[in-house]
Amino acid sequence: MNKSPILLFCILAACSVWSVHGKSQEMNIDDEEPAEVELPVEAKPPGLCWGCKWALNKVKKAMTQKETYEKVKARLIKICNKIGFLKSRCHKFVITHLDELVEELSTTDDVKTICVNVKACNSPACF
Asked: Where is the signal peptide (predicted)?
């Protein structure tokens, strides 16, 4: 019975390796030959959409009517320090899309629309 946890761990490790490489094996009962199934590689990282909406909502609420470009940039960079375990992902996203985010925040669009426009979220239907 001591081998059961080890066997379970090995099975989970093998499955995670297949998932990481974007492929999984699917066995059809009628055939003896396994069929390869492709998993979507372009999936958004977990938490990106939520993090985008959270951060932009905080920045948008703190903004004044005539906020300068530099001040909005500073707010965007600073807000990532408050997001917890998504801090590094937030910084990377904000730095990559900084100009676009500042421009989008100057419009009347809501944060959901902005996050879709900068490709952090898939579509408005997902909300």
From this structure: 1-22
Same domain, 93 and 118: yes
Residue type for 126, please?
C
Residue 102 structure tokens: 């500042």
Are 33 and 66 found together in one domain?
no
Entry pTM? 0.59
